[in-house]
């Protein structure tokens, strides 16, 4: 009986701790930060599979309201692309980028100016994720050491980075990371180190009291079929790291009973409530 009481007490304690961890989290908004389309998904994303098949990729940004401030995860395709309804061709024609609603306009609808964002992190520094990064010069930047060295070092182009999209962040307060990091110290928003797509790629675990736990993939995986088959895109920085990061995410999903939100999976993205709706 004493053992039962101890076990029951420990269970209650665990539940109490989980609720306490989520206490600072208030809500999360999902913003539409553009889309991109390829005529042949096998050219990079699924080598040898789906040859010649086109694919549409979604591109989301995420804004989290916490009692300690506003946190932005990814900033999408540059707002300037919205000026060209036909889109902008990049990567030697591999992709066509389009933006129908600018990030700034969507933030304004939430009564948010860029300088109200106090914390910012990017899954990685490719242009469709840091396209509007220069707007957020008032925020503390959270970035893995290898990504910082690649993005702000001598050869950013070697990693597919374009400093023009994020150059103003050089003056930001920076927290350089060497692994996972609890942003607010309460377990509600946790950066996960998931290298492979780029040297310091990272994903995000968000624990929501009412809506449940989710992991925001970044580009650790691009769409559900690739996730199920653990496929590694041809142009990833490191194949072995990518595979290990996918297994790490799978372990986190199981442990946290979390759902994987794949940023570029347009079918899944369409099923997720976007701003002005929010998750709690």
* Helical content band: 10-25%
Q: What structural class results from the helix and strand content?
A: alpha/beta
The fold-level CATH name is Metallo-beta-lactamase, Chain A
What's the overall average pLDDT, rounded?
A: 93
Query: Residue ranges: pLDDT <50 for 5 or more in a row?
Result: 1-20
What's the architecture in CATH terms? 4-Layer Sandwich
Q: Termini separation (Å)?
A: 38 Å
Largest sheet: 8 strands, mixed
Structure, described:
The chain has 280 residues and is of the alpha/beta class. The protein has a single domain, classed as Metallo-beta-lactamase, Chain A (4-Layer Sandwich). Helix content is 23%, strand content 26%. The chain has helices at residues 2-21, 103-109, 145-152, 224-229, 239-256, 266-270; strands at residues 25-38, 55-66, 69-73, 88-90, 95-98, 117-121, 140-144, 174-177, 181-182, 189-193, 202-208, 212-216, 259-261. The protein has an eight-stranded mixed beta sheet. Strand 2 (55-66) and strand 3 form a beta hairpin. The longest helix is centred in the N-terminal third of the chain and has 20 residues, at 2-21. The termini are far apart.
């Amino acid at each position: 009986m004493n053992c039962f009481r101890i076990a029951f007490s420990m269970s209650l304690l665990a539940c109490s701790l989980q609720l306490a961890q989520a206490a600072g989290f208030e809500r999360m908004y999902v913003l539409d930060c553009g889309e991109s389309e390829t005529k042949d998904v096998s050219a990079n994303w699924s080598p040898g599979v789906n040859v010649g098949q086109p694919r549409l990729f979604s591109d989301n940004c995420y804004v989290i309201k916490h009692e300690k401030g506003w946190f932005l995860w990814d900033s999408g395709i540059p707002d300037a692309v919205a000026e060209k309804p036909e889109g902008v061709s990049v990567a030697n024609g591999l992709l066509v980028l389009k933006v129908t609603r600018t990030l700034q306009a969507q933030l304004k609808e939430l009564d948010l100016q860029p300088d109200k964002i106090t914390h910012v992190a990017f899954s990685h520094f490719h242009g469709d994720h840091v396209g509007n990064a220069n707007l957020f010069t008032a925020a503390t930047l959270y970035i893995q050491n290898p990504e910082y060295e690649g993005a702000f070092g001598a050869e950013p182009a070697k990693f597919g980075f374009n400093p023009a999209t994020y150059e103003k962040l050089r003056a930001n307060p920076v927290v350089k990371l060497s692994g996972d990091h609890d942003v607010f110290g309460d377990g509600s928003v946790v950066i996960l180190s998931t290298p492979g797509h780029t040297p310091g790629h990272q994903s995000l675990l968000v624990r929501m009291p009412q809506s449940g736990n989710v992991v925001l993939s970044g580009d650790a995986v691009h769409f559900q079929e690739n996730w199920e088959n653990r496929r590694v895109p041809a142009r990833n920085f490191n194949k072995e790291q990518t595979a290990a990061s996918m297994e790490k995410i799978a372990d986190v999903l199981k442990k946290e009973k979390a759902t994987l939100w794949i940023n570029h999976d347009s079918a899944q993205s369409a099923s997720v409530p976007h701003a002005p709706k929010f998750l709690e």
